[in-house]
Amino acid sequence: MQQETNSTIAVAMSGGVDSSTVAAMLRDEGHNLIGLTLQLWNQRRLAGHEGMPEAVRGRCCSIDDVYDARRVAEQIGIPYYIVNQEERFEADVVRPFVNEYLAGRTPIPCTLCNNHLKFDQLLLTARQIGADRIATGHYARNHYDAERGRWILSRPADKSKDQTYFLFGLTQTQLARTLFPLGEMEKPAVRAIAQQRDLGVATKPDSQEICFIPGGDYKTFLAAYLDEQGEEMPASAGDLVNARGEVVGHHTGIHQFTVGQRKGIQQNLNAHPASPFYVLGIDAESHNVIVGHEEELLTREAIIDRVNWISIPELSGELRVQAKVRHRHEPAPATISPAEDDTVRLVFDDLQRAVTPGQAAVFYQGNEVVGGGWIV
Predict the structure, then answer these.
(1) Given this model, what pLDDT does residue 292 score?
(2) Under 8 Å CB-to-CB from 324, ≥6 apart: which residues?
(3) What does the pLDDT look like over 83-103, one tens digit per residue?
(4) Whether 21 contacts 183, CB under 8 Å
(5) pLDDT score for 3
(6) Which of the following is catalytic: 60, 61, 110, 113?
(7) Which residues of the chain carry a pLDDT beneath 50?
(8) 282, 289 in Cβ contact below 8 A?
(9) Long-range Cβ contact pairs of 190-193 (< 8 A, separation 24 or more)
(10) What are residue 37's DSSP bridge partners?
(11) Burial code of 341-353, b = ≥16 C-beta within 10 A, e = fewer?
């Protein structure tokens, strides 16, 4: 771990098997540990609103997860604290998530949470309690490259669990003070350690959904959240138009769509096409949703904004990379180059499907993360 055993490490404990195993591993190595859990979302909020379950439970920040984290901390014998960050989580993650959907874009709340809250707040809290570094259960690797004078973020040994797509916003300071103990491990080995240590979370399933949206039903969440805030759902009904601008149907709100979507289109068309229609784009100003056939979703280019560089200090010219535009997207060969207003032009060698505004584009060279930003 490249750490002295008398140093203090704050472990970010989510209540899942990965972070719990990290805590047990570091404890067994003799480190002084403090367990920290960020309380991010009040699971009782929105319960009972139309379409929302009476007991709203998510992942990452649910009451059950906090209980599991506390139980593991007690089992391995380390102090444990809950850090309430509900107000900041709502301001930095939930509200931007809502605003992005209402503006016709598709946000990634997990990346927003990592970039603007989790690592920033955990490192701040760690300093306040005397910890030198934080350790998390993310599947990623980092190391310092003396020749380049930079901390490098890399994909993990277990590519099926790679979480670097969600970590592209980490700064050099954050990478320097963060440990990823699972970076060299495969998931089955992690569960095996949890079982050997008799951790109660050893067989706990991995979380798959957005922590504050039960069942992944974001449309119902948007309506319930706005109602709670005393706000009306913005009127954004409009036309379904094809790539030529011809009206082919109508819709009741742009927040119901995302690029690449097929569901919910066919029944709103004036006529039924021979093959299914997909969302090609969303014009928030006109409220038009552009639709077309699947082959029309293919594109080579995108503009990337608010880029954070990791393996390089800046982009001075064209650079060959492999780029990833969705979490499950296999990095594809591409060229990036500086564009206007500090943006980056991304040009793939081959056509890619559904490059979606609001999602992240992350650039790799081999296993290294060059940097990443947001698709305009």
Answers:
(1) 96
(2) 165, 330, 331, 332, 361, 362, 363, 364
(3) 999 999 999 999 999 999 999
(4) no
(5) 45
(6) 113
(7) 1-4, 56, 58
(8) yes
(9) 190/17, 190/18, 190/21, 191/17, 191/21, 193/21, 193/24, 193/25
(10) 82
(11) eebbebebeeebb
In the residue annotation, 61 being an active-site residue is answered as no
For residue 330, the 8-state DSSP code is P
pLDDT at 60: 56
Report the topology of domain 8-137+181-219: Rossmann fold (3.40.50)
pLDDT digits (tens, 9 = 90+) for 284-306: 999 999 999 999 999 999 999 99
Architecture of domain 238-292: Roll (2.30)
Q: Locate 287 and state its tokens.
A: 């409220």
Give 278's Cβ-side CA count (13 Å radius). 13
pLDDT in tens, 40-88: 988 778 877 777 776 545 455 677 889 999 999 999 999 999 999 999 9
Give the up-direction half-sphere exposure of residue 370: CA atoms within 13 A in the CB hemisphere. 21
Mark out the alpha helices in 63-138 (DSSP H runs). Answer: 63-76, 86-89, 95-102, 109-113, 119-128
pTM comes to 0.92
The amino acid present at 366, given as its one-letter code, is G
Residue 73 CB burial class (10 angstroms; 0-12, 13-18, ≥19): buried
DSSP string across 33-73: EEEEEEE---TTTTTTSTTS-SS---SSS-HHHHHHHHHHH
The token pair at 350 is: 């081959």
Cα 356 to the chain's mean position, in Å? 15
The CATH classification of domain 298-375, taken from the options 2.40.30.10, 3.20.20.450, 3.40.50.1970, 2.140.10.10: 2.40.30.10
Catalytic: 113?
yes
- Of 266, 267, 261, the residue nearest 281 (C-alpha): 261
Q: Which of 74, 215, 175 is nearest to 66 (CA)?
A: 74
Q: Degrees (nearest 5) of the Cα angle 372, 375, 376?
A: 135
Rounded Cα gap, residues 96 and 119, in angstroms: 18
